[in-house]
Amino acid sequence: MMDNVAKSRSTAQDADLVENAWLDELTPPSTTRERLLDAAEELVARFGFDAPSVRDIAAAANVRLAAISETFGGLDNLTSAIVERRSPTLAKARLEQLADAQADGPASLEAVVAAFIKPLFARMEVSEKWRHFAQVSAQLGSSAQWDKRLGHFLEIEAPAFLAAMRNAEPDLSQEQAAWCFAFLMGAVASATSATGWVSQLSDGMVEENDLEGMQSELLVYVPAAIRAVAQAVDQVRIGTPLPNPPASTKTRDRILDVAERLFAAHGFYGVSMRKIASAAGISVGLFHYHFKTKEGVFLAMCLRRHPALNEQRWEILEIAREMPQSRERLATVIHAHLCTPASHTKRGGRGWSNYFRAMTTAIPSHGVYWLSTLRVIADDIMHAIVAETVSAVPNLSRRRAYLAYLFANGLVAFCYSGSARIERLSQGALKANDYPSMCEQVLRFHVGGVIGIAAVR
Questions:
Q1: Measured distance CA(439)–CA(412) in Å, rounded
Q2: Do domains 2-171 and 177-457 have the same CATH topology?
Q3: Rounded to the nearest 5°, which phi and psi values hold at 364?
Q4: What percent of the chain has pLDDT over 90?
Q5: Of 448, 457, 374, which is closest to residue 183 (Cα–Cα)?
Q6: What contacts 194, CB < 8 A, 6 or more positions away?
């Protein structure tokens, strides 16, 4: 009887939030403040926090250039207001659903995860503005600089969910719960960013705008992943790091080093050719001589490091192919994908750290150029990782393997962005640069999640 009451209450809440989301979507912004927030939110969602200029936002909002300083006091305050506007509303809805789930005692792990995921997806289903907010959240989670400044707004509900996860899964330690909550946030961010990368990679097998289907898979993947962390059964081997490219005084290499650092801090769309040239101490003309375009320097940056990373991944996949179909084989495949970068980031020097941060800031970005770059540097190895994932797990379809890859992208973005999220969630007990611990937990999480979705017919 109580289950039916709780279900009815949840259904009523869903109906209310859908109605309110429709009102939010259909009511045109009535003030300059709302128009600016909507315009800035959409631009940040697509291109990251550092890309939109005052002029870009004012033009998109169809307001005077001075309106931003008059309304918000400047671009920085407007950027903060984007995150502050919706995050309390979402946190409140999540906490209310969690409270309902716990009304008669500790909630199941499935109910805890649903309380986190469903309120966001319900709003996204009926409101393009909430889709933009979800994409803004993904941008925030992949940028260490912006996460440090605004990340706490996305963690208002974290203490209640960390406690609920441990009540549902008593074997989960405080530190493991913090890792799991961070991974949950990463997987949801990737599932809602809708960049088109995995749709392209899977030749349309995965439709990233299928929110209902994405939610259904996450509701299975995440509880199974958390239980795997609590059980602590999978081990990980961190490989030997590859060296940085040799130090060079050549102008071309100096430009690449500087570009790597700037892309790591500001993302692809937040960096200009002029910025790179100035930081490298050269003229824009000399930059053009070496690389022609910003796209050219970004691709050269990728081609300088990614082949060495992929070579190590291929070697690990060869080991996996010799193993019988088993959980250990899956763990080896996932190690190739998620954990190979850890050895370079931890022991391969600042250059590798900057490179992975530059790549993670690009993961939630939208744009034809970024997708075409991924095709050049990652298509073959990622298709191989998906194929080997299918080979390792009985009954796992290729579609679900691509979905698992999509969720894993969010884990990668969290793990290698340099975000301080894990330090906040663990109240300082864990460190963002503790790569052995991070790698151990992320491998267990993703192995468990993949096996979980494979078990669903």
A1: 10
A2: yes
A3: -85, 5
A4: 68
A5: 448
A6: 131, 135, 208, 209
Residues (pLDDT < 50) of the chain are 1-12, 15, 17-19, 22-23, 26
Dmax over Cα atoms in the chain, in whole Å?
74
Integer Cα distance of 322 and 434 in angstroms? 31
Q: Name the pTM for this structure.
A: 0.89
pLDDT for the residue numbered 57: 97
Number of H helices, E strands in the chain: 23, 0
Please name the residue that has the structure tokens 């010799």: 322
Residue with tokens 């059980």: 231
Asked if 113 and 184 touch (Cβ cutoff 8 Å), the reply is yes
Query: Domain residues of the chain, as ranges?
Result: 2-171, 177-457
Q: What are the pLDDT digits (tens) for 147-196?
A: 999 999 999 999 999 999 999 999 999 999 999 999 999 999 999 988 88
3-state SS of 56-89 is HHHHHHCCCCCHHHHHHCCHHHHHHHHHHHHHHH
Under DSSP, the state recorded for 427 is: T
Q: What is the DSSP string of 358-370?
A: HHHHHTT---HHH
Domain 177-457 top-level CATH class: mainly alpha
Cα dihedral 348→313→371→145 (10° resolution): -30
* Alpha-carbon span 169 to 148, nearest angstrom: 30
CATH architecture of 2-171: Orthogonal Bundle (1.10)
CA 261 distance to own-chain centroid: 20
